[in-house]
Amino acid sequence: MIAPPGTAGRLAELYGLRPRPLYGPEGSAVYDAMCRHDATELPDVLRLAQGAPGPVLELACGSGRLTLPLAARGHEVVALDSSAPLLALLKSRIRDERIDVVECDMAEFAFDRSFGLIVLAASSVCLLDAGQRAETFRRIAAHLAPGGRCYVSVLDLAGELTTGPRPRERVTVLVDDATVLTLHQHFDGRRAVRTTSLFTEAVPDGARALFTSEVAMVGSAELARELAAAGMVVQDVHRGAPGEQVRVQLVCGLAGGGDDR
């Protein structure tokens, strides 16, 4: 795997580290440690699921950050992800909940049933290129029950991160039990790419590792146009607190179908 750009790449060179995929066998546990307790989107997803006309389909479900709370409240959930290691973590946490776990790319899913709510959270839509997003949105529209909703979240980035002659970088230090995690985000506006790297250092032995992933920089306005092209309309928009990276939640329904609650 090619070394990531910016400070993360320099750390890889300094410590002789081989960058590994963030969603691979080793990186999945690190990603899970960073994200599993993040409840940022949970209240809105639970609200939408209540009274939804059918089961919930969660795309890019990961290790179950939203899946498990949804199922714990009695919702039938189909949890889909392409990462076998993350799905293994999810399966290890399932008790008696009604969860159907499916390993599949989110641009390729096909079911012989419809769903009252389809969730694509945590800016996972940015893992897809434009063609994959178009196919994913087409499949979402084809699987929505009448009156059903689609929930998509994304980060709207400030202009200073997406424009300019040179890439920008942001670094955040996190701590999980006996591991220090440093999150490196490298924004390349000319390529419209955000590279996310996690540098981990265990305490006290100092063992180090580097995990990385590259995603597209796509904003909520562009997603709204792509959703419309797939036959859906944005019915509600929730924007997070102002800042360089603003979480935007889009709630959609089928164009010309269902109610507008």
UniProtKB/TrEMBL annotation:
SUPFAM superfamilies: S-adenosyl-L-methionine-dependent methyltransferases
Domain Methyltransferase: 56-148
GO biological process, one term: methylation
Presence of the UniProt keyword Methyltransferase in the record: yes
Key word Transferase present: yes
A UniProt-annotated Pfam family: Methyltransf_25
GO terms assigned for molecular function: methyltransferase activity
Entry-linked InterPro entries: Daptide_MTase, Methyltransf_25, SAM-dependent_MTases_sf
Transmembrane annotation, as ranges: none
Keywords: Methyltransferase, Transferase
Highest taxon, organism lineage: Bacteria
Signal sequence bounds: none
PANTHER family per the UniProt record, alphabetical: TRANS-ACONITATE 2-METHYLTRANSFERASE-RELATED
Protein known as: Class I SAM-dependent methyltransferase
Natural source organism: Amycolatopsis dongchuanensis
Taxonomic path: Bacteria, Bacillati, Actinomycetota, Actinomycetes, Pseudonocardiales
